[in-house]
Specification:
Number of helices: 17
Oligomer: single chain
Shape: elongated
Number of strands: 20
Strand order of the largest sheet: 5-4-3-2-1-14-15
């Protein structure tokens, strides 16, 4: 017995039920034409993931119901094709949820997957394990399912195979997998929407390998691809043989119809599937940033982007990313020198813009800076110059970029990194002004590493060596006063980033960080700055999540708090 299964690793859009349904229907038609018997779509494919509080609107669920009916109707003529569709569905409140004290004013929802066959609903699975940590908030919207979903697929007349269907988190827990095995499953199907962070792809394969080895069943992992606000879904669907060995993998960071051909060999299965190469960590980060930026711009209807190009490393990296993501025609760079901007910063910015072929403009902010200082002089008569004047320069630049955005269109990309956002080394309504913070979750040391990597590689087939070497090799400086460097105010970035990673990402205590060998004064400074900057971060634009804890959905700290570790 041989069956062909296809994973529809597609890029869906939240709230575009008609468009998502059309993608599923087209994928089903193409798969059916190749002789595929089962098409898997990712978790909540029909409405997009995560839909957040749209799920609380009854009309949204009505639209999902209508879209599922459309998929069923349009695929009814695809004889012999089974189709698994992820979607939300109304349901009565189950006993387990009643016991846990669930209280809702909106209709009760399940995170569901429906098995369609020739236009008919054959089986429905409700997700049992609802994650409520990191970026997940599923208990706000869903109640847990109670039963395992196992269904029979007729591979040929008189030949059936029993399939166990799991939704994402269910496969990360032993109980739902054991229940599928007990119900007679011969093959596990897992549909997923698992956000990317560095190393997550390998982690998924390791966890699923443990489930396979515990059950002795092959497993097909169907995953989402695309950017949704701060989240990126990396695709990389895969199939594991019964011994846990990788039998095939779909490409990362791009849509694909990933086919797996399974042939029963005695009590086991022989699996035939293509294995896409696994990316190294820097390649993964670059593709995650490119996909996240491209989808944010395109899914939100922006025709172009612009950014302030300073001649420094952060804006240089963002410019290179923007061109790789969108093409040079949709990116504009603006250099805004002040009295403290070094001549080499201007020349480096011009050179980089020329290398990438983007529209480049210069606006000298020295006259505007002088006007601001003159207007404030009577009020500042008894005050020495300090960070106020530094911030004025950043705010002038932010105002100019937003004016260009308003008048000419285009999304302003901010260029701040995670190290700056952690310590508040950024200016509200200045360099924080904009609509999307591309490298918000990239530490400064990683900014340098990724810039060097991009100069040595050309992953998107664009411009080779886009960043002038001097931009990478110069000491970082905000250039808001004479002879300024970042380390005038901050610890060395290697130290700073190690502290942020341990304290913010891994929840280590300051005492344990010091015990690990990091300087006590630096640890105390960074922790103090981190907590004191929360009010800035809560006004910052969203940006792409790259680590297992970013300043976004993962980080929910109060602004008003007296607690300091």
């Amino acid at each position: 017995m041989t069956i062909s299964i296809c994973v529809a690793q597609l890029n869906f859009v939240v709230g575009d039920m008609a468009g998502n349904a059309r993608q599923i229907i087209t994928a089903a038609q193409q798969a059916h034409a190749r002789g595929v018997r089962l098409l898997l779509t990712p978790e909540l494919a029909l409405c997009g993931y995560p839909a957040q509080d749209l799920l609380l609107r009854p009309a949204f669920i009505d639209a999902c119901d209508d879209a599922l009916k459309t998929v069923a109707h349009e695929t009814a003529g695809l004889k012999g094709l089974y189709l698994v569709v992820g979607h939300p569905v109304r349901s009565a409140l189950p006993a387990c949820a009643q016991e846990e004290g669930w209280r809702r004013t909106q209709p009760v929802l399940h995170n569901a997957a429906s098995v369609l066959f020739e236009g008919r609903l054959l089986q429905r699975c409700h997700k049992r394990e609802l994650p409520n940590d990191q970026v997940f908030d599923e208990r706000r919207y869903f109640v847990p399912g109670e039963n395992s979903a196992v269904f029979d697929l007729e591979a040929a007349p008189g030949e059936r195979v029993r399939l166990g269907l799991l939704i994402c988190e269910d496969a990360w827990h032993e109980a739902p997998v054991r229940a599928a095995l007990a119900a007679g499953a011969e093959l596990l199907l897992v549909i997923n929407a698992s956000p990317f962070h560095a190393g997550k792809g390998g982690e998924r394969e390791r966890i699923m390998r443990a489930r396979v080895r515990a059950t002795g069943l092959p497993l097909i992992y169907a995953h989402l691809v695309g950017g949704q606000d701060e989240l990126v879904f990396d695709g990389r669907s895969f199939v594991l043989a019964a011994d846990g060995a990788l039998a095939g993998r779909a490409p990362s960071f791009e849509p694909a119809l990933f086919d797996c051909r399974l042939s029963r060999q005695g009590p086991g299965w022989q699996i035939d599937a293509h294995t896409a190469p696994e990316h190294d960590p820097q390649t993964e980060l670059w593709h995650a940033l490119v996909l996240g930026l491209r989808d944010y711009v395109q899914k939100n209807g922006f025709s172009s982007t612009l950014l302030g190009l300073s001649g420094g490393i952060d804006s240089a990296l963002v410019l290179a990313l923007a061109v790789d993501a969108l093409g040079r025609e949709r990116v504009r760079a603006v250099m805004m020198p002040s009295p403290y901007t070094a001549a080499i910063s201007c020349s480096d910015a011009r050179e980089m813009a020329a290398r990438l072929g983007v529209r480049y403009d210069e606006i000298d902010i020295a006259p505007l800076f002088a006007v601001f200082k003159a207007a404030l002089a009577p009020l500042f008569a008894a005050c020495a110059e300090d960070s106020t004047e530094e911030n004025l320069q950043a705010r002038i630049r932010g105002t100019l970029l937003m004016a260009l955005s308003n008048k000419l269109g285009g999304l302003v990309l901010t260029t701040g990194n995670k190290s700056e956002l952690a310590t508040g080394y950024c200016t509200l309504y200045g360099d924080m002004a904009g609509g999307f913070a591309v490298i918000k979750d990239l530490a400064k040391t990683e900014v340098f590493r990724l810039a060097r990597w991009r100069n040595a590689h050309n992953p998107c087939g664009g411009v080779a060596t886009p960043i002038p070497e001097r931009i990478i090799s110069r000491a970082p400086s905000a250039e808001l006063r004479h002879n300024q460097t970042d380390q005038d105010s901050l610890p060395d970035y290697a130290v700073l980033d190690a502290i942020v990673e341990r304290y913010m990402q891994d929840d280590q205590s300051p005492a344990s960080i010091v015990a690990a060998g990091l300087d006590r004064a630096a640890v105390e400074q960074v922790v103090r700055l981190l907590h004191g900057s929360e009010y800035k971060r809560q006004q910052a634009p969203l940006g792409i999540r790259l680590t297992h804890r970013s300043f976004g959905k993962d980080w929910r700290y109060p602004v008003t708090s007296k607690y300091l570790s």
